[in-house]
Design goal:
Layout (H helix, E strand, L loop, with lengths): L9 H5 L2 H4 L3 H10 L1 E5 L4 E3 L8 E6 L2 E6 L5 E7 L4 E2 L2 H5 L6 E4 L3 E6 L1 H10 L3 H25 L2 H13 L9 E2 L1 E3 L2 H7 L4 H13 L3 E4 L2 E4 L2 H7 L10 E2 L1
Parallel strand pairs: 9-13
Antiparallel strand pairs: 1-8, 2-7, 3-6, 3-8, 4-5, 4-7, 10-12, 11-12
Helix pairs in contact: 7-10, 8-9
Length: 242
Amino acid sequence: MKSRNAKDYRERLRAGRWFRGLPVELQDGLLDAARIRVFRAGERIFSRGDPPSGLFASLEGAVRIAAIADAGKEALLTLVEPPAWFGEIAVFDGLARTHDAVADSEATVLQVPEAALAALLASEPSYWRDVALLMTHKLRLMFAVVEEAAVLPIAVRLARRLLNRAEGYGEWHDRTSRSVVVRQDLLAAMLATSRQTANQVLKRLETRGIIRLTYGQIEILEHEELRLEARLHAQPSPSPSR
């Protein structure tokens, strides 16, 4: 079977707002420089303290962005799913990696190596702004999460996290999903709460007919009701896709 190259994934990447909004020349440059890598479940893509290794995008499977202590305890920040990009912080400051990136399941990842990315950005300085937009989007999300953790109860934060996952954290172009693929232990870890507490909140939502719990995923049955639980104004959503 013919091995796939980066350009085979162009349309998948264009399903994301950031890549879709790039100049075509920059899209082409990233794909020309990229290589495809496949990781086993639990395999590290990069570790905290590693030197910069370029820019990455999730193509298949999911990647955990986390801090893993020497004792093995993991503080989970987020799950990166297709077609999201990650690893941009070290692109700007050239310093060591701030967190671990670990394949949650078998994952196919696109990597634009450091040297090739540097050459591409040097060839057209305006491209730096495009990469900066990737980082500022995540900064906005991070500030929102920090604020929510300080002032909102766990039930509201959980509802917001489900909505964010269903909407690709604002990255997906013109779509949302009714199925959030996430284990309850990972959801609890992202919210810095116990699995028991997260399960109690989820069960209450299920009893009210807002969600349905199945193995490894959560189906959103009443999207607008979940928005109300998240204390967000209900609004029309794009057509669901599974």
